Amino acid sequence: MAEDIPRVAVLMGSKNDWELMKPAVDALEKLGVSCDVRVISAHRTPERHAAFVGGAGEAGIEIFICGAGFAAHLAGVTAALTPLPVLGVPLDSSALNGIDALLATVQMPGGIPVATFGIGKAGAKNAGLFAGAILAGRDPEVRKKLDELRATQTAAVPETPFD
Ligand code: RP5
Q1: Ligand 1 center to 71 CA (angstroms)
Q2: In the chain, fewer beta carbons within 10 Å around the N or the C end?
């Protein structure tokens, strides 16, 4: 992980969410963006949640990525606590395979937006890349790394399935 001041906070509702949320951190590392990774639950650690989000802006955080399963209110409550962009990742940790978390995250009432991504690891990866894309708009170094990452990804696609 880069050692400069974290610009993105990656929050997850449980330590058990880490394997699903790691792709977000991996994507940000590839873009040279440092993150602050925390286990914070909106319902199990509400004071920790409010304290962290309340101090995050002053600490340099520009974007939040929140992953949670079940009745996933972590992203929504985070968005209620900050005007900074909140990217929500629904996690498939319940018997409903993340459909519950997807609906809970995406169906925010008008007024407190959460940008919601796909369920699980692909959603976490895209949330990390999207946070990078937001930062790329104001940081040429991140923009350069994002362009390089896209070019590498394109070059890795074979012309035929036999290559
Ligand atoms: C949510 O409940 C967490 O985000 C996690 O996905 C789910 C289950 O948490 P654990 O019981 O595994 O800690 O709050």
Answers
A1: 9
A2: C
